[in-house]
Every structure is written in C-alpha cells, then in structure tokens.
Automatic annotation (TrEMBL):
<protein>
    <recommendedName>
        <fullName>DUF1772 domain-containing protein</fullName>
    </recommendedName>
</protein>
<feature type="transmembrane region" description="Helical">
    <location>
        <begin position="50"/>
        <end position="72"/>
    </location>
</feature>
<feature type="transmembrane region" description="Helical">
    <location>
        <begin position="128"/>
        <end position="147"/>
    </location>
</feature>
<keyword id="KW-1133">Transmembrane helix</keyword>
<keyword id="KW-0812">Transmembrane</keyword>
<dbReference type="Pfam" id="PF08592">
    <property type="entry name" value="Anthrone_oxy"/>
</dbReference>
<keyword id="KW-0472">Membrane</keyword>
<dbReference type="InterPro" id="IPR013901">
    <property type="entry name" value="Anthrone_oxy"/>
</dbReference>
<feature type="transmembrane region" description="Helical">
    <location>
        <begin position="79"/>
        <end position="101"/>
    </location>
</feature>
Amino acid sequence: MSTVVLVAAVVAAGLIAGLFYAYACSVMPGLARGDDKTFVEGMRGINVAIINPVFMLTFLGAPLLAGVAVFLNPGPRPWVIAGFAFLVAMVVITGAVNIPLNNALDKGGDDYAAVRAQFETVWVRWNVLRALVSTAGFGCLVAALLTRRG
C-alpha cells in the first residue's frame, strides 16, 4: 500500500508541476500578447474553468498523498517529507497570493488596463515560484521512490 500511495503522490505532483510550468512558459506569455481586454477576460475564463474536480484532485491530492506517504514510508522518509513540504508550500502560495489576485481580477471591473496592471506581473512572478516549488516537490517524491527501489 505504501508504494501505491507514493506513486500516486508522484503522479499527482508531476501533473500539478506540469500545469504550473505550462502556465509559466505558454499560457501567460500567450495571453501577454493580447490586448488588455483579451488578457483580463481570458484569465477570468481560465479562473472559472480551472475549478473542477480533476484540477482539485491533483492540486489538493498531491500534498495530501505525500503527507500520507510520510507515515507509510519509513525508508526514504527525508525525501518524502521534503516533497510534502514543497507541495504544502505550493498550496500556501496559491492561497495567499494567486487566489486573492484571481478574486481581485474577477471583481476589477471593466477598466481592463488598470485591472491587468494590478494583476499580471505579480501573478506571473508567483506562478513561476509555484512552478519551481511544485517541481521540487515532484523531484523529491521521485527521489523517494528511486531510493526505495534502489
């Protein structure tokens, strides 16, 4: 059972790290090419669409599964603990920075230039940090799996 939980944590962490990576290297640069209205309305649409069971399963599932794996994996425990800590940091960053920015964007009205100016640079910067932190969590869990196997 411990191997199944650790593998599930690795898969969930890889998916969420990949999502934030995709935002960093394609979604946000792509939206940045548009005018202010396109950017703001595009992000508003994305923010609604992303709240779905598949996203929530990976976003919350990765740290939850890593936390369970801490107690089930006595061998490579430091790697699992580190992976768990990075994934919790990802959730904290999202809750403390990205979600409030998303909410402000949603309530920002129709002055698209002002709304974008308050949102884009800060959100992108923190998303890059989320991508790095979640990738570190994924890497630590992979190391735990490899250490366990090898």
